[in-house]
Design brief:
Blueprint: H1 31-39, H2 43-52, H3 57-69, H4 77-89, H5 93-105, H6 113-125, H7 129-141, H8 149-161, H9 165-177, H10 185-196, H11 201-213, H12 221-233, H13 237-249, H14 257-268, H15 274-284, H16 287-303
Helix pairs in contact: 1-3, 3-4, 4-5, 5-6, 6-7, 7-8, 8-9, 9-10, 10-11, 11-12, 12-13, 13-14, 14-15, 14-16
């Protein structure tokens, strides 16, 4: 579940000093948009930001991001730390979250996961969903904190109820396996669906598995096929395996060895165990079917230049 995070999740607002920067672009609440806006600042606009940052927590946080990301200023992790800390001590949630990021990775300060967890908790209590999810990760893995599955489930649920899709998927996994909560596959299915409808590939595969097996939802192979397909198209290797098996066994459609080979061959590139299954498919296929399947697989790879999925949990 743990992963290194560049602070792409940082949320900022310019409301308190927007009038000072009326001619500058107003970014949406994402770090990418804010950084893009900062890059367009004139020297006068950036100087106005510096002045407001002497007392305003939001401005301090944004200026800290500039120093963290080498935007309009030389990269200076210590200066980023000082700015985030000033804003964090004023109770500004995004800055608390960002300060935790610095402590997590040892940027500008010695790495200290226990201090990071303290700031994540403050940010989480201030409604920062990224902090809530990260804190849940730490409780789940016992990283920087004593491992505590019920506490992990609590924080995943807080983030999940705020709409965080990855937290929804992770909470579904905890209910599905009975980790820190009573096993409840109907509840797992509800959280998997919430994440799946937001496009999380792993959640789509997880929901497909429940429909395939009739756990927590009525057994429905057509629904399983739908969710496996959505997930497989995003590159999820488990969904590709599951989709191949649906095609080869004809659960809800006529047997289709060409499509089965397509998906299993894509999965086999990441999972060596699938190569044996792929060889079994080949033995059942005609030369024409095999050639067609390989062409489709090559065309799919050309059209989907997907990175390897870094599956959570």
């Amino acid at each position: 579940m743990g992963r290194n995070r560049f602070p792409v999740f940082l949320v900022f607002a310019f409301l308190l000093f927007a009038m000072l920067l009326a001619d500058s672009p107003l970014p949406a609440e994402s770090a990418d948009n804010i950084i893009a806006a900062l890059k367009r600042y004139t020297p006068q606009q950036f100087e106005a930001l510096r002045k407001v940052a002497k007392h305003d927590a939001q401005a301090q946080n944004i200026l800290g991001l500039a120093y963290l990301t080498h935007t309009k200023v030389d990269q200076d992790y210590r200066e980023a730390y000082e700015l985030f800390r000033k804003a964090a001590l004023q109770g500004y949630g995004p800055a608390q979250n960002n300060l935790a990021f610095l402590y997590t990775h040892g940027l500008g300060v010695p790495k200290d996961l226990s201090i990071a967890a303290e700031w994540l908790r403050k940010a989480g209590e201030n409604g920062e969903t990224a902090a809530q999810e990260q804190l849940a990760d730490m409780y789940f893995t016992g990283t920087g904190l004593r491992k505590d599955l019920p506490e992990a489930a609590k924080w995943f649920e807080v983030a999940a109820r705020s709409g965080d899709a990855r937290a929804q998927n992770n909470l579904g996994l905890m209910y599905n396996a009975g980790l820190g909560v009573a096993k409840d596959r109907a509840t797992a299915a509800r959280w998997f669906r919430a994440a799946a409808e937001q496009g999380i590939a792993q959640a789509q595969n997880n929901l497909g598995v429940l429909y395939l097996t009739g756990q927590g939802v009525p057994e429905d192979h057509h629904e399983a096929f739908k969710w496996f397909t959505l997930s497989a198209e995003k590159g999820d290797v488990n969904a590709q395996e599951n989709l191949a098996n649906l095609y080869v066994h004809g659960h809800c459609m006529p047997e289709d060895l060409v499509s089965a080979y397509l998906w299993m061959s894509l999965a086999a590139e990441k999972q060596s165990n699938d190569r044996k299954l792929l060889h079994g498919f080949e033995l059942r296929m005609s030369p024409e079917q095999l050639e067609q399947a390989k062409k489709r697989a090559k065309a799919w790879e050309s059209a989907h230049n997907l990175p390897s999925a870094a599956l959570r949990f």
